[in-house]
Amino acid sequence: MDDDDVFKALADPSRRMLLDRLCEKNGQTLGQLCESMDMKRQSVTQHLGRLEQANLISTVRRGREKLHFINPVPLYEVYERWIRKFEEGRLSLLHDLKQQLERNKK
């Protein structure tokens, strides 16, 4: 996974909206996704291409339709690398504070 591709893909509000739509109902066609967007089909296609390049979505052909599915793995990898470590420190501080307050009660 290339973190830069993921962050670039997530930087655009339209792409985040597409991911939100796929999170609500996974496996949508381009037409279905276009219904919820205030932009031309070609623009939605370009945004989907960027999401696919970042591996945030995958596609499956079913007959003439192309279904789009969210791929949560790159988001989880970003969480693990960039977010989780900040949560651990905060949780550790809260744990230490709790223990200190409990000691002070005695």
From TrEMBL:
UniProt-listed Gene3D superfamilies: Winged helix-like DNA-binding domain superfamily/Winged helix DNA-binding domain (1.10.10.10)
Residue ranges constituting the HTH arsR-type domain according to the UniProt record: 1-90
Membrane-crossing residue ranges in chain numbering: none
Protein name: Helix-turn-helix transcriptional regulator
NCBIfam families given in the database record: HTH_metalloreg (NF033788)
An example Gene Ontology molecular-function term: DNA-binding transcription factor activity
InterPro entries, A to Z: ArsR-like_HTH, HTH_ArsR_DNA-bd_dom, WH-like_DNA-bd_sf, WH_DNA-bd_sf
